[in-house]
Amino acid sequence: MPQTSPATKDVKQKNHNVKLATILSLVFAGLGQIYNKRLLKGIIFLIIESAFLITMLNFIIHGVWGFITLGEVKGEDHSIILLIEGLVSLIVIAFAATLYVYNVIDAKRDARLLAQGESVPSVRKQIKDAYDAGFPYMMVGPGLVMLVFIVVLPLAFMISLAFTDYNLYNSPPRNLLSWVGFQNFVDLVTLSIWKKSFLNVLSWTLVWTVVATTLQIALGLFLALLVNDERVKFKRTIRTVLILPWAVPAFVTILIFSAMFNDTFGAINKDILSQFGMMIPWLTDPTWTKVALIMIQTWLGFPFVFALFTGVLQSIPRDMYEAADVDGGTRLQKFRFITFPHIMFATAPLLIMQYAQNFNNFNIIYLFNEGGPAVRGQNAGGTDILISWVYKLTFDTNNYNMAAAITIIMGLVVSIFAFYQFRKTAAYKEEGEM
User: Fold this and answer.
1) Structural domain of 375
2) Cα distances (Å, whole numbers) of residue 390 to 361, 386, 398
3) Which GO cellular component terms, listed alphabetically, does the Swiss-Prot or TrEMBL entry include (predicted)?
4) Does one domain contain both 107 and 192?
5) Distance between CA atoms of 383 and 362, rounded to whole angstroms?
6) Same structural domain for residues 117 and 197?
7) How far apart are CA 392 and CA 402, in angstroms?
8) Between the CA of residue 422 and those of 127, 299, 343, 352, 428, what are the distances in Å?
9) What is the CA radius of gyration of the chain?
10) Structural contact between residues 100 and 30, judged by C-beta atoms closer than 8 angstroms
11) pLDDT digit of tens for each residue in the chain (434 aa)?
């Protein structure tokens, strides 16, 4: 039986057509690998694509149709179900496209190696190489799939609703939804009822975030510096007392304060301010309600900041303060050039997260007065922030499209602010760059 000589085999491999292997892999996944004599890999790709076409093709076609049209027959087509099926179809297409592109790249890479004279590995070697290269992906893959369907899919659904006309008066299956583009965002800043509410809520959200967070940080820093002073006695007892507000669940504290600030029977008006002939409308006047909310958030937030700063102050080397004393540094100079830079370097990312957390601090706004009191001429309460307004639009008035649009704006604001601040934070830079 004639055998192929090594020289003839090398010539055949050098004549291996890279372009043909690429085209075959484009025509059908696995054909390029089979042409490259990577039989196991080629068969796996063939099985995957064949199974995908057999089981998923009809679902994908129907899902893409539903995503584009959101239904055509009232009472039969459910726009929300079609939208979800369409998003799932797009995710499946994305996974399939990724695998398909990998199939093409893999076939082209192997063809080039064969054309350069590389030998085709044995089946056992192929299995070993596939296991070694694919093991990390096998471990990460299930988690990635769960992440996509648990996190990405709901997020994509919410974003999609912002571009539809889904509200209380136009809801499936009685009515079909339609894509309206950016009309919801335009209405938010042009229609009087939405414009007034949106601007008032947005401005209060920004004021609330900056003032409440800054006050809790300032109070926490002041108390941490005070307790850390060497002349203060009973430090452990004082620290324990100052951290106690943090130990009580926040919702319990908020409900207690809500009762204490009650205009009629609250302890603050009835037992304290009444001694001075004062009765402040804490829950009926938007301005006083905002003042009360800021004070309560300062009370709730300062213990965490206090504990954070206390730990950082304990880690600052005493040698630096002794050197400053030798150079004649004042207390203010030591705070400015030693204490404050160390605190900011260690805690800036966490402080930034305090601002982001208060920007979306739903609990205190809703539990204290449900975002009230009501304000004439707008569909948001006097102390509603964006997140509490979104809650009301979703569950009280069923304006799902506007709620989704506002949520996107909230996400963009927080993301841009956090990204910019983290990039500028010294704690995220190399020490040599400081």
Assistant:
1) 184-433
2) 12, 6, 10
3) maltose transport complex
4) no
5) 11
6) no
7) 11
8) 44, 26, 16, 8, 7
9) 32
10) no
11) 445 555 544 545 557 788 999 999 999 999 998 998 888 888 989 999 999 999 999 999 999 999 999 999 988 899 999 999 999 999 999 999 999 999 999 899 888 888 887 777 776 777 777 777 777 878 888 888 899 999 999 999 999 999 999 998 999 989 999 999 999 999 999 998 899 999 999 999 999 999 999 999 999 999 999 998 888 888 889 888 998 888 889 999 999 999 999 998 899 999 999 888 899 999 999 999 999 999 999 999 999 999 999 988 888 888 888 888 888 888 888 888 888 888 888 888 888 888 888 999 999 999 999 998 988 888 899 999 999 999 999 999 999 999 999 999 998 888 877 777 667 655 455 544 44
| Residue 367: closest CA among 283, 269, 270 | 283
CA distance 87 to 374: 38
DSSP calls for 121-150: PPHHHHHHHHHHHHHHHHHHHHHHHHHIII
Within a domain: 278: yes
- Specify whether the CB–CB gap between 24 and 107 falls below 8 A: yes
CA-closest candidate to residue 35, choices 117, 104, 133: 104
CA angle centred on 59, ends 53 and 63, rounded to 5°:
130
Is residue 101 located within the same domain as residue 232?
no
Count the Cβ atoms, other than its own, within 10 Å of residue 379.
Answer: 20
DSSP state of 170: B
- The two three-digit tokens of residue 29, written as one number: 């996944």
Q: How many domains does the chain have?
A: 2
> Do 15 and 143 sit in the same domain of this protein?
yes
Query: Does residue 177 lie within any of the structural domains?
Result: no
Same domain, 111 and 206: no
Domain membership of residue 407 (yes or no) is yes
Contacts of 77 (CB under 8 A, 6+ apart): 66, 70, 71, 172, 173, 176
Entry pTM? 0.82
Residues 311-345 as b/e (b if ≥16 CB within 10 A, e otherwise) read ebbeebeeeeeeebeeeebeeeebeeebbeebbee
73 DSSP assignment: S
Say how far apart CA 29 and CA 32 lie, in whole Å.
7
**In terms of domains, do 281 and 417 share one?**
yes
Q: Are 201 and 384 in contact (CB under 8 A)?
A: yes
What CATH number does residue 235 fall under? Answer: 1.10.3720.10
